């Protein structure tokens, strides 16, 4: 076996490291891609009984049913985070964040029988709803 100098050993290791990093670039790039969909629909719910964990759980149960609507590209159910700054609104109980490909698909969602049934079955739980719709710039 040929004896290898420290310099050639380190050079070979560097080349292999760079080759490995280059091979991983496509995977890394996909981690930074924007979410699918360019229409964002964010809904905030205030409950009639804000201290009722049962009402909150019931609302979340209802929101879960909406995930069956195929036009939704990404859906997230949230609650206020523990952050505490003057600009943060923490009065809501549950948030519902949706991504759609476009306004047309969001309008299909609004008229979808599952969505209409959700409003019919769960609207008695909330006292206030605020919606923020936005599009990519």
TrEMBL record:
Domain of life of the native organism: Bacteria
Stress-response A/B barrel domain span: 39-134
Alphabetical list of SUPFAM superfamilies matching this protein: Dimeric alpha+beta barrel (SSF54909)
Gene3D superfamilies the record matches: 3.30.70.100
InterPro entries: Dabb (IPR013097), Dimeric_a/b-barrel (IPR011008), TAT_signal (IPR006311), TAT_signal_bac_arc (IPR019546)
NCBIfam families assigned to the protein according to its UniProt record, in alphabetical order: TAT_signal_seq
The protein's name in its UniProt record: Dabb family protein
Organism: Pontibacter mangrovi
């Amino acid at each position: 076996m040929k004896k290898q100098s420290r310099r050639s050993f380190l050079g070979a290791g560097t080349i292999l490291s760079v080759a490995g990093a280059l091979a991983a670039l496509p995977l890394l790039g996909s981690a930074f891609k924007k979410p699918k969909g360019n229409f964002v629909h964010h809904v905030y719910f205030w409950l009639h009984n804000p201290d009722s964990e049962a009402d909150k759980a019931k609302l979340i149960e209802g929101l879960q049913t909406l995930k069956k609507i195929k036009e939704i590209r990404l859906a997230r159910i949230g609650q206020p985070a523990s952050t505490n700054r003057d600009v943060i609104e923490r009065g809501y109980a549950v948030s519902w964040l949706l991504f759609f490909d476009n306004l047309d698909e969001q309008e299909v969602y609004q008229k979808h029988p599952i969505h209409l049934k959700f409003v019919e079955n769960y609207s008695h739980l909330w006292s206030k709803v605020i919606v923020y719709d936005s599009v990519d710039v």
